[in-house]
Design goal:
Length: 157
């Protein structure tokens, strides 16, 4: 029996990430292993980029669990200003920089496997449209105490 390689499973996951990013008008920034960084509203206006990210995140958690590799991904979302551009001269890439990008990474790292977590400020942008529960204050490197919220789904869904 022929088995898929780890790279084949990873490719399947990244394909799903990319398809959902397109559907929700998010801009792919990069992948790092099984991690996927995207932004909303950076290159094209989006009515509610945080909601687009949450919707994408909820779908990817469900899709990833159903894949043969049964990925248990964490999604972390934060909103705010970023700087973007290309740096370097060899193997360069377009990237985003700044406190917002760092905070989003911290929210993800403090998140729950198989769930979407958002910062308190991102939650304010989607609270009317989503169901969620505060996970309380967590100590975030460089920020101190920060509240994060687990998003349980969309209201009315």
């Amino acid at each position: 029996m022929l088995r898929k390689s780890a790279i084949a499973y990873l490719q399947e996951l990244v394909d799903a990430y990319e398809e959902l990013a397109l559907r929700y008008e998010l801009q792919k920034i990069k992948t790092i292993g099984d991690a996927f960084m995207a932004t909303g509203g950076l290159l094209k206006p989006v009515p509610n980029p945080v909601l687009s990210a949450v919707q994408r995140g909820l779908e990817i958690v469900t899709i990833a669990r159903r894949m043969p590799a049964r990925w248990d991904v964490r999604v972390g979302i934060h909103a705010g200003p970023v700087m973007a551009g290309v740096v370097g001269h060899r193997q360069y890439l377009f990237d985003v920089f700044g406190d917002t990008a760092n905070t989003a990474a911290r929210v993800e790292s403090h998140g729950v496997p198989g769930a979407v977590t958002v910062s308190a400020s991102a939650w304010q942008a989607v609270a009317e449209r989503c169901r969620g529960e505060s996970l309380g204050m967590v100590h975030v490197k460089g920020k101190g105490g920060m509240e994060i919220v687990r998003v349980d789904g969309l209201r009315g869904a």
